[in-house]
Amino acid sequence: MTDHKQDDVTGIETTGHSWDGIEELNTPLPRWWLWTLYLTIIWGIGYSVAYPAWPMISGATSGLLGWSTRANVAQDIDAHAQKNAQLVTDLLGTDMEALPQDADLNRYAIARGGAVFRANCSQCHGSGAAGAKGYPNLLDDDWLWGGAMADIEYTVRHGIRNEQDADARYSQMPAFGAILGKDDIAAVVEHVISLSSSDFDAALAETGAEVFADNCSACHGDAGQGDRSQGAPNIGDAIWLYGSDRQALTQTVTKARFGVMPPWGGRLEEADIRAVSAYVHSLGGGE
Amino acid sequence: MTQTSPPSLYAPREPVFPRRVDGFFRRFKWGIMAVTLGIYYLTPWLRWDRGPNLPDQAVLIDLAHRRFYFFWIEIWPHEFYFVAGLLIMAGLGLFLFTSALGRVWCGYACPQTVWTDLFILVERWIEGDRNARVRLHHAGWGVHKLRLRVTKWVLWLGIAVATGGAWVFYFTDAPQLARDLVTLDAAPVAYMTIAILTATTFLLGGFMREQVCIYMCPWPRIQAAMMDPDTITVAYRDWRGEPRGKGNLRKRERAAAQRAQDQIAAAWPGAARYGPTPYPDRGRAALPPVPRADTQGDCIDCMACVNVCPVGIDIRNGQQMECITCALCIDACDDVMAKIGKPRGLIDYLALSDETAERAGQPPKPLWRHILRPRTLLYTAAWALIGVALVYALFIRSAIELTVSPVRNPTYVTLSDGAVRNIYDVRLRNKQGRDATVQIGITSDSALTVTLEGQGNAGATVVLPANQTILQRVYVTAAPQTEASTADMTQLRLWVEDTGTGDRASKATSFNGKDR
């Protein structure tokens, strides 16, 4: 039992606690405060009956109201889907080339496409779409198969050099290691370097130009400008998917490259394919 | 040591029956009540023409569209610092008034005080003044009591519904919402808000009253740190009033004092709970003796000050945590002093620091010396500084705004001709009620070109829809082998200009080259 002392000034009993000489008065609480406390206890019991509360062995009690955060989220998603239903219908019906003219629909398509991209495409192309070695950068103005809206949409839908889709974009560079000798390969590499750089061996490049004309220009063009109809890259510009130094180029010529992209038609919803095409088109290189 | 039996842990509420009083402060409080309630109930109905695309309600908190309209001012969510600034000013203003004039906020302007005052007015109108109400309180439940009580509650409920109803009008178009409320077409949240505010107004104004101030509000506890001996507050001139009572003989003093205590205890059973608060630096016993020839104080112990008190305390016990300084006891006491032919001001607005001088018969310090002190001047300066800064910020803000977030994934993009491009996500805001065509450009020491997504090299103008924010992807390009394309970082400033009005806004940012 604490020592109940009386405060000299007020005549009220103290709790017996003292901090630095200051004592606490034992002033009674108002009665309604007590009722409020009881009310919160009753409320708490009611709440735990109505809502999920008590932990059991394989989960918590579900509550009489059947409320759950999961159902709430599903409801939210449904509400948003309902809100966007008209936009989705419009997106499915629109001519993709004309999409950028419809500001609202375009904004919706790009936002939706961004989400699709981050979930499905960023694993290879990077979350910022900057690509990596062997995976094209989608921000620049250089396209292997074309950068118009329709080209991008086709690539997304059917993919590149895959076996799943018969309509996939397809082409194959021969491995020149079995066709040309080492000297010829070194010469043609020097020629390719001469197309975009000033640091090369002029005599060797001269020889390489002949090798190039005989073996490469059919696909890559006389001046190395490439051919989008068969995915042959422009080798005269500043963008290199597999590297631009002599070693990387020698490897490319000797063993060839075979970049594959899966088809997304059938895996993504039609609206998602259109949206992600619009998104990629909006990143800076769209034509 | 005397062992006392432990008292009850819980005390029932002691009902308070404030008596009607008239006087300067009462009339002043009626005026403040009329003004504050008038502002509260009528403001949502004021109209303000902002043009065709914007609401015409003068004061509107549009949560759905994230806008706050206040007459000619429109605040967007990113300008919330205006609201923060106003809150800081309100806080500093409260410090200022409390350090100068004590709890004037509590006594005059606090919604709890104003609505309680209104509820007591209704109560007095229906059930009569103090004595009638005390009788009614003790009377058994009969037809008479039931009729008065129900009438009073219905009127209170009417006020409470109007209070909750006025609140929701601040959040959407008032006339439209009023129609919807009547036809039951309004959003459920509107009805719920009205119901909650009706309940709190009815309960806090009708039944909780002083309990809110004493037990629920933190301000009475904080104010002790805001007040000092120079603060003007409602107090009792005990040097003039004591010994209270009708007798004038020294030998009867003790008996009179005891009788007074007994009377207090009888008239007001809870009075013992509100003992006097001791002065911080000296006990009451240490006060010098009253230097008076006769031994009778001016206080005739009529209990008028106690009877009018809305929180049910005796101001003669000294300053108390419960006192909201409503000043009604001043009016009550002045009335009595006039009747018995004594000067007014036995209970008055006083500063504790004047007590010694007054006790010695000296005049107190003039009012302005209590109010103009370094502390209050400092509060005023801080308050004014924030106010001026807010007004300045309000006038320099542009109708067109932008924020720039440079895309750093990747830091730069190489184009096929070897040029280097940086990408910026630019958020453009048009805070006007009409569409605006804006030009986007850059200022930099280096040769950089700007293009916009979707426009190629066609131009750099964008149409901003009225009252909206849009996101525009902006490309800044450095030609191959230029300084900016090879350097690590180049500073630049992105600007937008309204081609119609010439309004301009800009943000500094940087350009990344290849040397990283």
UniProtKB/TrEMBL annotation, chain A:
Belongs to the CcoP / FixP family. Gene3D superfamilies: 6.10.280.130, Cytochrome c-like domain. The chain crosses the membrane at residues 32-54. Binds 2 heme C groups per subunit. Its cofactor is heme c. C-type cytochrome. Part of the cbb3-type cytochrome c oxidase complex. The lineage of its organism: Bacteria, Pseudomonadati, Pseudomonadota, Alphaproteobacteria, Rhodobacterales. The keyword Transmembrane applies. The keyword Repeat applies. Residues 108-196, 203-284 form the Cytochrome c domain. It is found in: Cell inner membrane. Component of the cbb3-type cytochrome c oxidase. This is Cbb3-type cytochrome c oxidase subunit. Pathway: Energy metabolism; oxidative phosphorylation. Keywords: Cell inner membrane, Cell membrane, Electron transport, Heme, Hydrogen ion transport, Ion transport, Iron, Membrane, Metal-binding, Oxidoreductase, Repeat, Respiratory chain, Transmembrane, Transmembrane helix, Transport. It comes from Sulfitobacter litoralis.
UniProtKB/TrEMBL annotation, chain B:
Keywords: 4Fe-4S, Electron transport, Iron, Iron-sulfur, Membrane, Metal-binding, Transmembrane, Transmembrane helix, Transport. Residues 289-318 form the 4Fe-4S ferredoxin-type domain. One of its GO terms (cellular component) is plasma membrane. InterPro entries: 4Fe4S_Fe-S-bd, 4Fe4S_Fe_S_CS, Cyt_c_oxidase_cbb3_FixG, Electron_Trans/Redox, FixG_C, Ig-like_fold. PROSITE patterns: 4FE4S_FER_1 (PS00198), 4FE4S_FER_2 (PS51379). The keyword Transmembrane helix applies. The chain crosses the membrane at residues 28-46, 80-97, 153-170, 190-208, 377-395. One of its GO terms (molecular function) is 4 iron, 4 sulfur cluster binding. This is 4Fe-4S ferredoxin-type domain-containing protein. It comes from marine sediment metagenome. The lineage of its organism: unclassified sequences, metagenomes, ecological metagenomes.
